[in-house]
């Protein structure tokens, strides 16, 4: 699609003031469904917006990442716990899609206390011709009915209906930080700071506590649970991370209460690097199993690490996300940025990993070649058909024209939430109240690539002077990695999607 078409997709009445952002409009989670055809975002205002991939874009190489608004609904409302005099925010902490079983889609959304199951259905036909009412809609006198007619279905404008199916409440004393759907498609787990509960999707009034790290005396508390996830293939295995930087793999076959882990993944601390901030920056903010189930990906404040399930002693790979911030930890502690929780994501083939950073930068690491790139998600750098230029943060010395000094980084602009399409090189980046979608895109002019390449998600990608390049398996082709195709702002949703 051309630039004019992309512009028409945006309702300009919601884009009058780009600098004005309300707290409720900030995106708090992003999640593709299992096919990648739907993309859901949640915000701090308790709203969920679902984007659908345009059907005609699948066969168009230049616009495969085109998504449009499919449905929006209010998932959570602000509440107040009168017993504890505690206000419960409506902010959506996590969204997880359930595997599709029929024509309908289902997803789980949660705030700090309550998890809800939603069903999304389509309706494009309506029944007409019932025998009980006349053409004006009035009830007929049955004594006057002499013949019966068969009702028929007539086409109507497509209508997307979102209905709440289950509400899972009163299961957590502390704030829920993660939910994960089991591979058995019948159960899911939810984790808060001290406990992990196992739920059945059909039962709302009770759950089973499978992890409890709350000490008898809260003064003895030394760590909290930060994230948890089920294994993608083995329904009995799950992992949870802690604020001390450790990972615990648990097997539900061993005991009903998994207080004793099966494996402990923990990297020995280097005494020479010990500082006041060591424990804070080692806290794991996100953990993700690879699609194969063999590896785990974790994110702490400064690094992303890849762990092998068969090797507990140390990670097999460690990538520095923004090591240049190590000298600024004191100021980051003072403005609370050091407590930011960044997420991480695998690509479909588990060969490339992605995570966010500050200044609206996001980082990508190729596991095969050990190459990495820093890209920026912003209105200024993202233009239709334009290749995203690699960015570089300069600590000192000579600077190139496009380099940015570490002292010039904007810490209010941060990429905390990212998602990767499960099968294709399409990524979703949440930056404050904006949603950016990028994709690998084939140039119209075909010419031969040079140099070493690395496989990533169905194409061979390598860094080049003009962005990334790649070669196809059969015929070498130049690609622009993560070329901007569809800039979809999440509008000022307080205006565009009114709260009910």
Commentary on this structure:
The protein has 500 residues and is mainly β. The chain has one domain (3-132, 151-239, 288-297, 324-496): Methylamine Dehydrogenase, Chain H (7 Propeller). It has 4 helices and 35 strands. The protein has helices at residues 3-8, 278-282, 329-334, 493-496; strands at 27-32, 38-43, 47-53, 67-74, 79-81, 86-88, 94-97, 105-110, 115-128, 152-168, 178-181, 187-191, 195-200, 208-212, 225-230, 237-242, 247-251, 263-265, 286-289, 295-299, 303-308, 317-320, 344-346, 352-356, 361-366, 372-376, 393-394, 404-405, 417-420, 426-431, 434-442, 454-456, 459-464, 467-471, 479-489. The relative contact order is 0.12. The model is unreliable at 1-18 and 442-500 (pLDDT under 50).
Labels describing this entry:
single chain; mainly beta; Methylamine Dehydrogenase, Chain H; 4-stranded antiparallel β-sheet; globular; disordered N terminus
Q: In CATH terms, what is the architecture?
A: 7 Propeller
Count of the domains: 1
Helix content: under 10%
Instruction: Tell me how many strands there are.
Output: 35
Radius of gyration: 25 Å
Coarse structural class: mainly beta
Task: Tell me the name of the CATH class.
Answer: Mainly Beta
Number of continuous helical runs: 4
